[in-house]
Specification:
Number of domains of chain B: 4
Number of helices of chain A: 5
Strand order of the largest sheet of chain B: 2-1-3-4-5
Distance between the termini of chain B: 59 Å
Distance between the termini of chain A: 5 Å
Strand content of chain A: 15-25%
Radius of gyration of chain B: 27 Å
Largest sheet of chain A: 5 strands, mixed
Largest interface: A-B, 17 and 20 residues
CATH class of chain A: Alpha Beta
Number of strands of chain A: 8
CATH architecture of the largest domain in chain B: 3-Layer(aba) Sandwich
Shape of chain B: globular
Radius of gyration of chain A: 15 Å
Oligomer: heterodimer
C-alpha cells in the first residue's frame, strides 16, 4: 500500500490517533498522514437509535474526500469516538469498503469503562489498533480469516478482539504482499 | 467446506438491508446474492445452489412465509432464516411451523447473526450426512437384490465375492437389462469402500462436452450457462466407487482424459487449472463388444486393458431359465409391498408363459411385465392374460422387435437422403447426436 490518510472526527483523542499512527506505519510500512477536517458528524446521527450511521459516513467520505491522494493502495480512514451502526445490525466497530479506499472505525465500544471496568488506555489502544488494521485489511481486499490469532479474524465483541493479534497471519500478509 | 463455496441468498425489499447483509457476509468470504422480492428469490433459487436464505417476512406481493412454503416444496436442502422487524409469538411460531430454521429480529446483533449462520450450516451438514447415510444403507440393501440360484448366477456371485474386497478394476459385460448396475453395487457393497458413495455415470446418455463436465465438473464461467462451480462425478466418488455404465459409448477425447485420471487419480475441472485428487475404484459395464471396438479403432486399446482387469460376464435371462420363477416371485413380492396389494402368485399357465419367453429385455423386461400384471390383476393370482402380450410371443421375435423396425426405418431414411445425417435427423425428428448413437448402435454403414 502507498498511503493511509487519517481523519479524526467528532473530538477523537489526538493522543490515541498519534499512537495509532506509529502502529500503522510499522504494520503497513507506509506513509501515514493525519488531516484536520471540519466535518459535522451530527448529520449522520440517528435520533431513534442514538447512534451514528457508518454507511452514510462512509459514502460521505467517498464522495467528499477522494482527492486526498489518487491511486491504488491509498486509504482514507475516519476515526470516531461515537457509536456506529449499519441499519440491519445493532452496532458495528467499524466499516470499510472492501477493495475500495475508505473506512471508518469507532472506539466507542472498545474502552473497558464501557463494561464497568477501570480505565486501561493500553488495552483501549491495543483494541483500536486491531480494529483499524482489520478494516484497512478489508480496504486492501482481504476477507475474514479463520485463523483465531489473525487480525482479520471476525470479532463481534471486545473479548474476541482481545484474543487476536495486532498483525496479519502469514496467509493474509502474503495476500497483501501480492496485491500491493 | 470452503466459505466461498457456501451460498447465502438475502431476500428483502429494502435495498439498505440487502446491501448491508450482503456486505457483511461477503467480508466473511461467503458467496452472496440478494433478491428484492420473493419472485426474484425463487428465480435465483432455481439458477443456483444456495445453502442459506435470509428472508424478510414483510414484503410486498408474496410475503416471506409464502416464499418459505414454496422453498420447502422445491428446495428441501436450503436452510431458511426468517427476518422480522417485530417479533411476535404468532409470526415466529408460523415461520417455524413452515420449516424455518430460526428467526431473527431487526436490527440484528452481529454476534447473534454469525452464531445463527454457524448453527444453520452445522444443521445443514448433519442433514446432508444423514441423507448420505440413508443413501448408503439403501445402496447396500439394493445390492442384496440379486436373485439367482442357477449355476450361471452362482458363478457370477462367486466372482463378485472374490473381486469385491480387492481394489481391482472390474468390467461387467452383458446384454441390456441383465442387472449390470446391481452387480456393480454388490461389488461396492462387498468392498472396503462401502461407506463411501458409489457414483454412477451413464456414459451413453451424454454428448462429448456434457460427459466431460459430468465426469470432471466445471468452474464458474467455464462455458455458457456454467453459473456456478460444480463438482464432477470423479470428485464425488472420492473414497468410493466410480461406476461407468455403457463405457463403450465414450468418445475418443474423453477416453484419453479418463485413462489419465484412472492412471494418476488426478484431474482438473473444465475451465479450471487447479489439479485435484480423487481416490476411487473403477467398475464399468458395457453391452458392446469392446474387443471389436478396439480392432475398429473406436475404443482406445490402452484404456481397454486398463478397464478390463477382471471381467464378469452376465448371462442373459434366456441363458438361465431356472431363475425365471424365482425372479418373478421376487418382483411379485416387491410390487405387492410397494402397491400394498395382496397377490399370492402366478397361475400355472402364466408361469409356463414366463418360462417359455425369450426375454430380449432380460431381467428388466421381466420386472416390467410383473409390475404391469400387478396393476391390472383384480384377484389374488396373476393369469396369463394379465401379462403383457409381447411377453407371451415366443420364438417369433426375429425382425419383429420394435428395435428391428426402428433400425430398418432409420436405414431407409438415411439411404433416401444420401446419408446426410442432419437432414435425416430432421426427418426423424431427433437430434444429430442421437442419430449418430443409433447408427453406431445398429452398426449401420453406408453402401459403397
Amino acid at each position: 500500500m502507498n498511503a493511509i490518510h487519517l481523519l479524526p472526527l467528532g473530538g477523537t483523542s489526538t493522543v490515541l490517533v498519534e499512537a495509532l499512527s506509529g502502529h500503522l506505519r510499522q504494520t503497513f510500512r507506509t506513509r501515514v498522514e493525519m488531516h484536520a477536517f471540519s466535518l459535522d458528524p451530527e448529520r449522520f446521527f440517528d435520533a431513534g437509535r442514538g447512534q451514528y450511521n457508518s454507511t452514510d459516513l462512509l459514502m460521505h467520505l467517498k464522495s467528499h474526500y477522494p482527492a486526498l491522494e489518487q491511486g491504488p493502495g491509498v486509504c482514507t480512514l475516519a476515526l470516531v469516538p461515537f457509536d456506529l451502526f449499519i441499519p440491519i445490525l445493532t452496532y458495528v466497530f467499524g466499516e470499510a469498503e472492501v477493495g475500495g479506499n475508505v473506512a471508518v472505525v469507532s472506539y466507542h465500544r472498545l474502552s473497558p469503562e464501557r463494561y464497568g471496568l477501570p480505565p486501561d488506555n493500553a488495552l483501549l489502544l491495543a483494541r483500536f489498533v486491531k480494529e483499524v488494521v482489520h478494516e484497512l485489511g478489508h480496504v486492501f481486499s482481504l476477507i475474514h480469516c479463520s485463523a483465531q490469532s489473525c487480525v482479520m479474524h471476525s470479532s463481534s465483541y471486545v473479548e474476541e478482539i482481545d484474543l487476536k493479534e495486532q498483525s496479519f497471519c502469514r496467509a493474509c500478509a502474503s495476500e497483501l504482499g501480492l496485491r500491493y | 467446506m470452503n466459505k466461498s463455496e457456501i451460498g447465502i441468498l438475502v431476500v428483502d425489499d429494502e435495498l439498505i438491508v440487502r446491501e448491508s447483509l450482503s456486505k457483511w457476509f461477503r467480508e466473511d468470504g461467503f458467496r452472496v446474492d440478494a433478491a428484492e422480492s420473493a419472485a426474484a428469490a425463487l428465480r435465483k433459487l432455481q439458477a443456483g445452489p444456495w445453502n442459506i436464505m435470509l428472508v424478510d417476512i414483510k414484503m410486498p406481493g408474496m410475503d416471506g412465509i409464502e416464499l418459505l412454503q414454496r422453498v420447502r416444496q422445491t428446495s428441501k436442502d436450503v436452510v431458511v432464516i426468517v427476518i422480522t422487524a417485530f417479533a411476535t409469538v404468532d409470526t415466529a411460531v408460523k415461520a417455524l411451523k413452515e420449516g424455518a430454521f430460526d428467526y431473527i429480529t431487526k436490527p440484528i446483533d452481529p454476534d447473534y447473526l454469525d452464531h445463527m449462520v454457524d448453527k444453520a450450516l452445522q444443521q445443514q451438514l448433519l442433514v446432508r450426512e444423514n441423507q448420505k447415510l440413508k443413501d448408503t444403507v439403501s445402496e447396500l440393501s439394493e445390492a442384496r437384490e440379486i436373485v439367482g440360484e442357477s449355476p450361471e448366477m452362482k458363478k457370477v456371485m462367486d466372482l463378485v465375492r472374490t473381486v469385491a474386497p480387492t481394489d481391482t478394476t472390474v468390467m461387467i459385460r452383458g446384454e441390456s437389462g441383465t442387472g449390470k448396475e446391481l452387480v456393480a453395487r454388490a461389488i461396492h457393497a462387498g468392498s472396503g469402500r462401502k461407506y463411501f458413495p458409489i457414483v454412477t455415470v451413464n456414459c451413453g446418455a451424454m454428448t462429448e462436452s456434457l460427459l466431460e463436465s459430468e465426469l470432471f465438473g466445471h468452474e464458474r464461467g467455464a462455458f455458457t450457462g456454467a453459473q456456478y462451480r460444480r463438482k464432477g462425478k470423479v470428485e464425488l466418488a472420492d473414497g468410493g466407487t466410480l461406476f461407468l455404465d455403457e463405457v463403450g459409448n465414450i468418445d475418443t477425447k474423453t477416453q484419453m482424459d479418463l485413462l489419465r485420471v484412472i492412471e494418476t487419480k488426478q484431474f482438473t475441472r473444465v475451465g479450471g487449472t487447479e489439479i485435484l485428487r480423487s481416490d476411487f475404484r473403477v467398475v464399468c459395464a458395457t453391452n458392446k463388444d469392446l474387443e471389436c471396438a478396439v480392432r475398429e479403432g473406436t475404443f482406445r486399446e490402452d484404456l481397454y486393458y486398463r478397464l478390463n482387469v477382471f471381467t464378469i460376464d452376465l448371462p442373459p435371462l434366456r441363458g438361465r431359465r431356472g431363475d425365471i420363477a424365482n425372479l418373478a416371485h421376487y418382483f411379485l413380492e416387491k410390487f405387492s409391498r410397494q402397491m400394498n396389494r395382496k397377490v399370492q402368485g402366478f397361475s400355472p399357465e402364466a408361469m409356463q408363459a414366463l418360462k417359455a419367453h425369450d426375454w430380449p429385455g432380460n431381467v428388466r423386461e421381466l420386472e416390467n411385465a410383473v409390475e404391469r400384471a400387478m396393476v391390472v390383476v383384480q384377484g389374488e393370482v396373476i393369469e396369463r392374460s394379465h401379462l403383457p402380450l409381447h411377453a407371451l410371443v415366443t420364438g417369433q421375435r426375429d425382425g419383429k422387435r420394435l428395435e428391428d423396425i426402428e433400425q430398418r426405418h432409420i436405414e431407409q431414411v438415411l439411404r433416401d437422403n444420401g446419408w446426410n445425417v442432419s437432414r435425416s435427423a430432421a426427418i426423424l425428428d431427433i437430434d444429430r447426436v442421437t442419430l449418430y448413437h443409433k447408427i453406431e448402435k445398429f452398426g449401420l454403414k453406408r453402401e459403397q
